[in-house]
Amino acid sequence: MLKIQKCWCGSTHLNYFSPEYSICQECSTLVSQCGLSVEETVVENDQEDFYGKKYWFSHMDELGFPDIYQRSRQDLPERCLYWLCTLLKYKLPPARVIELGCAHGGLVGLMKWSGFNAIGSEMSPWVVSFAREAFDIPMLLGKIGDQKFQFEKEEKFDAIILNDVLEHLPEPLVTMEYCASLLKEDAIFIIQMPCYGENRTYEDMINNNDIFLGQMKADEHLYLFNKNSAKELLNRIGFNVIEFEEPIFYFYDMYLIASKKNIVKNAAEKISQYLLSHPSGRLIQALIDKSEECKANYDNLQINLLRNVETQSQLQQTQSQLQQTQSQLQQTQSQLQQTQSQLQQTQSQLQQTQSQLQQTQSQLQQTEERIAAIESSKFWKIRQAWFRIKQRIGLRIN
Ligand SMILES: [Zn+2]
């Protein structure tokens, strides 16, 4: 293991970033502090060395990824097709293309069937022979810098593809300079690699359980670039036209096309026209059609899912309002019952009062009748006459 004292950009101003990474003060690239040296990336013993056979089996298993057998099957209609479509957008056959670190070689196979003169490269002899067998493709073994090309006899490349490779290189600038020398004047690099979003601190990442933490594998990912430092690297080797594409793993990767000259894109019709012009190209076109159909179905599914979530939310809101209304209705009913009960009580009191009034009236009538009876009696008339006499003779009444 090597403690890296210098950033790829040449700066030695490295500050602490995390237990395993420093951050370059010049270009903000994250620099591994426990990565591999150039020698350690070479595979001499396929059973023991880091990028030997065990990298593709036990190491993948440790990381929770499928092994190379499974990957050679499942990557084909997924990431390999995605990468092929990007290449077709920028270069059409006939063109010579090399993919560095091509693993099982699925993309090289798709390129070959599309009509490209495609070749792959890997560090492990076992992986090289697996890829040759699996996809019947030409493969180079070892570092690109060690390859002997004979450009006096063969053409230079139209494109070099590095998917998940640049971050593994111990000397990215040296390797990319060499790669640039293998390219034609109007050629392109297509690069996918992790993207460190600048200004994010390690503490922020830990607190937010940032998905990028999964890319901070310091033994493998020696340099974690950001978009600006990636541009800087390419500018230094003369590639000043850079276009960023949407990466398939958009949540932690970047995906870019770099060229010395203006980039021209191929229209979808032109790509189809080319693919349909030969039998294996037709298979590729069918794969693209099916993939687009799947994507459209998936997008529709997502839209429907979102609509369902929205409808459920509205339903819940309506239910909540209904419950509120029911509760208000119950309250109103209870008030109504209380009012009715008070009304009944008042009516009952009224009836009682009326009954007492009738009783009183009846007693009054009875008394009046008695008085009338007394007044009309003989005794009363004599008593009245006696009073009148007493008045006349001057006697005091009473
Ligand atoms: Zn730097």
Structural write-up:
The radius of gyration is 48 Å and the shape is rod-shaped. The protein is built from twelve helices and eleven strands. 31% of the residues are buried. It has 398 residues and is an alpha/beta fold. The strands form two sheets. The chain has a seven-stranded mixed β-sheet with strand order 6-5-4-7-8-11-10, sandwiched between helices. A four-stranded antiparallel β-sheet has the order 1-2-3-9, with no helix packed on it. Among the domains are: 64-277, 3-Layer(aba) Sandwich (Rossmann fold), CATH 3.40.50.150; 360-392. The N and C termini lie far apart (144 Å). It has helices at residues 38-41, 53-62, 68-74, 76-90, 106-114, 125-135, 172-181, 202-207, 227-236, 268-275, 279-375, 378-392, and strands spanning 14-16, 21-24, 30-32, 96-100, 117-122, 139-141, 157-163, 183-194, 223-224, 241-245, 253-259. It binds zinc ion. Zinc ion binds next to loops.
User: In the CATH scheme, what's the topology name of the domain at 64-277?
Assistant: Rossmann fold
Percent helix: 40-55%
Work out the radius of gyration: 48 Å
What is the multimeric organization of the chains shown? single chain
CATH architecture of the domain at 64-277: 3-Layer(aba) Sandwich
Beta-strand portion reads: 5-15%
